[in-house]
Write a structure and sequence with these properties.
The protein is built from 21 helices and 37 strands. It has about 725 residues and is α+β, with helices and mostly antiparallel strands. Strand 26 and strand 27 form a beta hairpin.
């Protein structure tokens, strides 16, 4: 076989390479032409990629709407909390003139001790650890913007702050279950998703989340390869749209008073549940409403005790306060003769006895006296005279067993099992059916408002902060169960409960004002035993009052379930009256203030800003204002305060101040549990409690040092 010469082989290789190059060029040119025409590679748009490469955009965050009380005081608002940390390593300090780590530990400790509740020695110890960076525990968390700014003024190297958007509830416990809570979402591990928007998870924050949530804007501009904005290029700006502001019907003056009184009763008698609601019956506006258990919206102290909003979700058998509705219905049907007589004590329905609270009765008495004494027998007879079907129609008309359509999450409509004769009879005095406090408030409004039943209203108006446009929420009539004449006559008879010598509501009389009222003591069904609780104070006690009785401007309804009362000289009505009387009296006074009283009201004490000020100067100032002040810490500068700046201070309210330096234990002897919890809140140290009432012992002696490891036990006893 003849071999090819090397020259021939080289020619073949050259020809192959030549035609290969031509083929590669043709393929490349075709591909390039395709890209030029189509503008994409592997499905990706080249123009979009180039724009992305040389275009920078950033989010312009919108604010969540603020919730205000009726007077424009903020109840829930956006805020930012700051956490302090220090960088100890020099690995990230590339510029010696501007170091990014702590260079002077002694000076840094000395300055920081002026602003956080740690001693100079403790801070220096933290800064001397062999770590890249350190935090400062609870003392360095949840710092205000003011404290952050004051620290930054010292230009300390290596001192930085983590910023976290939060929702601030500046009034502490303030109708917390109604107002609700909004917070940033979290991961499964509990880490806060700081890049996501806040979401309402309870109350108005949840129900009106869409209205409160704003729409983020965007800033978009062209940049060069170094990341700088190109000159003469117009930036594209989409402005953020802030969320809607909501004004509640709540009045801060009345709400603060109600919360204070509720706390006192809760601590003193430790009921399973406690509710109180004050309403304007002519409009349905809720002026104040509270419950126990409750929680602090900002610190979340107590939130795990009860998530349920008792105003709308709690159902119970109301007992004799429902007799106000039975009475109004009977008057409307001309089935109530106040001067007719009946035999009190006991009546049988389908062979089942129904008894008065006085099981032997009071003999033969008039129906008006039966009302004053709250006789069950009297009201069973009244329903018999009306007819069971007619009474059921009135209950329906009053909204019993129906939702009020409040818009709040998980509203319960209650129940009314009205099939058996005994069930029908029991409803005459508020047993055998269940209601919510809001349902009862709606029904009571018909009696207090000339027969017109008003839908309970807790939103006064919406305000668009972007345009200033206001949307007023108008009062809504939702029924007319009785005539104006019947409602007026009902009020007249309900005065007997307070002013008749045999009345069950004599403790609710208020000097200078006439009160129409009805009291109640209801059995409580125990689902575990499938029977009613018995004995002791295992009842639901309640009172509804309307004033002034001839033309009510206020309705106040209070319920208290199963209080703990060990003093035989104290009745449940004493506990209810300790809330009812001051709240109703203050509310009526506000409605009829003269110019002098209004001026005095306008001059109520507001808590001044005292943080970052010398302790001695602050003490002098607050003592001159007549305030009850307790200092936590042995430093010379105030770093935290409760109440917060501009919060209205009521009589004898305790002011807690924290100084820089080491925290010290105050002498809490005689304090209420609520005041002790203020110290827990301001220090971040959890206390444990034994008993109820007021402090008699504390495990840590006064003036002893408080640390994060401190285990503080507080013993409480009733006075």
């Amino acid at each position: 076989m003849k071999k090819r010469s090397p020259l021939t082989n080289r020619k073949l290789i050259a020809i192959f390479l030549f035609f290969g190059s031509i083929l590669a060029f043709v393929i490349f040119a075709g591909r390039f032409s395709y890209i030029m025409v189509k503008g994409e590679v592997n499905g990706e748009n080249l123009e979009t990629n180039v724009n992305n490469l040389y275009t920078r955009s950033s989010v312009l965050e919108a604010n969540r709407g603020t919730i205000y009380d009726v007077g424009g005081n903020p109840v829930a608002m956006d805020a930012t909390s700051y956490s302090l940390y220090a960088v100890l390593t020099d690995e990230w300090s590339n510029n010696k003139k501007n170091p990014q780590h702590v260079t002077n530990k002694q000076k840094t400790a000395e300055i920081l001790a002026q602003y956080i509740s740690m001693s100079e020695e403790e801070i220096f110890k933290k800064l001397s650890q062999d770590l890249s960076q350190v935090e400062f525990g609870t003392a360095g968390k949840n710092l205000s913007y003011e404290i952050k700014s004051d620290i930054e003024k010292h230009d300390l190297s290596g001192i930085f702050f983590k910023e976290t958007p939060t929702r601030l509830y500046p009034n502490g416990i303030f109708s917390s279950h109604l107002v609700g809570v909004a917070q940033l979402p979290t991961t499964k591990e509990g880490e806060v998703k700081v890049d996501e928007e806040m979401v309402g998870i309870m109350g108005i924050e949840q129900a009106y989340n869409d209205q409160l949530t704003g729409t983020d804007g965007k800033l978009k501009y062209q940049k060069d390869s170094f990341g700088y904005a190109l000159p003469n290029e117009d930036a594209e700006v989409i402005d953020p749209v802030d969320g809607m502001d909501i004004y509640l019907t709540l009045d801060k003056r009345m709400q603060v008073l109600l919360e204070s009184l509720m706390t006192e009763v809760d601590e003193k008698y430790n009921p399973v549940a406690l509710t109180a609601t004050l309403m304007d019956p002519k409009t349905g506006k809720i002026i104040a409403t509270s419950q126990r258990p409750s929680f602090n919206g900002t610190t979340k102290e107590g939130i795990s005790d009860l998530w349920m909003n008792l105003l709308t979700e709690y159902t119970y058998e109301p007992g004799s306060t429902l007799k106000a509705l039975t009475l109004a219905s009977a008057i409307n049907e001309k089935a109530f003769d106040p001067n007719a007589y009946f035999e009190s004590g006991m009546i049988k329905v389908s062979g089942i006895p129904i008894r008065d609270v006085n099981r032997t009765g009071w003999g033969t008495i008039t129906y008006l006296e039966g009302l004053a004494r709250s006789s069950n027998v009297a009201f069973v007879k009244i329903v018999e005279k009306m007819g069971a079907d007619v009474w059921k129609e009135y209950m329906d008309a009053f909204g019993i067993g129906k939702s009020t359509n409040s818009g709040l999450p998980h509203e319960n409509k209650g129940s009314n099992n009205y099939k058996r004769a005994i069930d029908q009879a029991n409803t005459a005095f508020g047993q055998g059916l269940t209601v919510t406090p809001l349902q009862m408030m709606q029904a009571f409004s018909a009696i207090a408002n000339g027969g017109q039943m008003m839908k309970p209203q807790f939103i006064d108006k919406y305000v668009d902060p972007n345009t200033g446009k206001e949307t007023i929420v108008e009062p809504e009539v939702v029924g007319n169960p009785v005539s104006e004449e019947s409602a007026q006559q009902t009020l007249e008879y309900l005065k007997e409960v307070v002013y008749n010598e045999n009345g069950t509501g004599k403790k609710y009389a208020i000097d200078g004002y006439e009160i129409a009222a009805k009291t109640g003591t209801a059995q409580i069904y125990n689902p575990k035993t499938k029977s009613y609780f018995s004995g002791g104070h295992n009842f639901l006690y309640s009172v509804v009052g309307m004033a002034p009785a001839d033309d009510p401007e206020l309705v106040l309804y209070i319920t208290m379930e199963r209080p703990t009362i060990t003093d035989y000289t104290v009745a449940p009505s004493d506990a209810l009256a300790s809330i009812f009387n001051p709240v109703m009296k203050r509310g009526l006074e506000y409605l009829h203030l003269n110019d002098t009283a209004q001026e005095a009201l306008d001059n109520q004490i507001k808590m001044p800003k005292v943080t970052s000020e010398p302790k001695n100067d602050v003490l002098t100032k607050l003592e001159e204002m007549g305030l009850n002040v307790t200092v936590v810490g042995n430093g010379d500068t105030i770093v935290q305060q409760l109440p917060l700046t501009d919060e209205v201070i009521i009589d004898e309210q305790r002011v807690i101040l924290m100084t820089n330096g080491a925290m010290t234990m105050p002498d809490m002897t005689g304090w209420s549990k609520n005041d002790v919890l203020k110290v827990s809140e301001i220090t971040g140290i959890e206390f444990t409690f034994d008993g109820d009432g007021y402090v008699t012992q504390q495990s840590l002696e006064p003036n002893a040092l408080l640390t994060e490891e401190s285990l503080i036990e507080i013993k409480l006893e009733s006075p």
